[in-house]
Amino acid sequence: MLLESYKTFEPANYLQEYYSTVDLENRSLLAFFAEAYKGIDPNSVMLEFSGGPSLYSLITAAAHVKEIHFSDFLERNVEEIKLWKRFRHRSYIWINFFKEALMAEGLSEVSTDDILEREELLSKKLSDFLLCDAFNRHPLGQRCYQRYDVVAANFVAESITPSLKTWEEVVNNICSTLKPSGTLIMTAIQGASFYCVENHRYPAIAVTPEDVIRVLSYQGFDVDNLLMRHIPAEITDISAKDYKGYQGMLFVKATRL
Ligand SMILES: C[S@@+](CC[C@H](N)C(=O)[O-])C[C@H]1O[C@@H](n2cnc3c(N)ncnc32)[C@H](O)[C@@H]1O
To answer: Its domain of life (predicted)?
Structure first.
């Protein structure tokens, strides 16, 4: 289902708004991925669900999984990542994210060769590109039912609906692509009623850790052993000119029993 607001979603504007610098929110995300991907089976096939035009979430994943399948609802977002894979040597926008991700993984100094090596690795691991629809019970079609060892969904379910009931359905739909004993890595904005790209507002729903635990428990995840982190947003004053619509972020890693 194509939401009205996503008809005009422009990858370049979105990247400029959220990923033009490695700010505190982005550093925290990269630190979370460094923690979350530890212990993932290196033979895993991973799905990035609705990755947008973004690469930041794949940098550490590339060092821990065998293959990455990248998806989004919008073909123009998937196209951005395909272009990066083909012409990455011409793309500079993610370089600071590679550097920061490698530091979050424990490198005290990061050389150009280290970055090139990880870029090459990620490019190799990106082995399939798919279109998805989170509102569909089988968001990637029936053939992808319980197909993946790892599913990552970053800022998706709570960023495409203003309804808590629909959010739950969307998380359930996303989880249908995960194998019975698979691992879900999910990040979400918190305390949100919208998120902004330039002056355009996209729908969002405020979800709490309790909401996340409820839906993960229903999906058969080991909720007693979740990895869960919270950070405040950089701008929490709702009257600030550049308030982005959310109060914080929630990061979760969960494995199905
Ligand atoms: C806030 S962005 C997150 C993108 C990316 N994961 C990131 O962290 O930068 C929300 C994403 O949801 C995607 N989207 C919009 N409608 C969707 C739908 N019906 N099914 C799945 N994804 C959708 C958009 O194309 C966009 O990439």
So the answer is: Bacteria
Phi, psi of 181 (to 5 degrees): -105, 20
pLDDT 10s digits, 26-37: 999 999 999 999
CATH 3.20.20.30 fits 4-255, yes or no: no
Residue-range domain boundaries for the chain: 4-255
State the greatest distance between any 2 C-alpha atoms of the chain, in Å, as a whole number.
48
Phi, psi of 179 (to 5 degrees): -60, 155
Ligand 1 centroid, distance to 108 Cα (angstroms) = 33
* Tokens of residue 188, six digits: 């979400």
> Residue 103 is which amino acid?
M
Residue nearest to atom 17 of ligand 1 (CA): 73
Determine if the pTM surpasses 0.70: yes
DSSP single-letter state for residue 241: T
pLDDT digits (tens, 9 = 90+) for 56-79: 999 999 999 999 999 999 999 999
Helix residue spans in 88-187 (DSSP H): 95-104, 112-125, 164-175
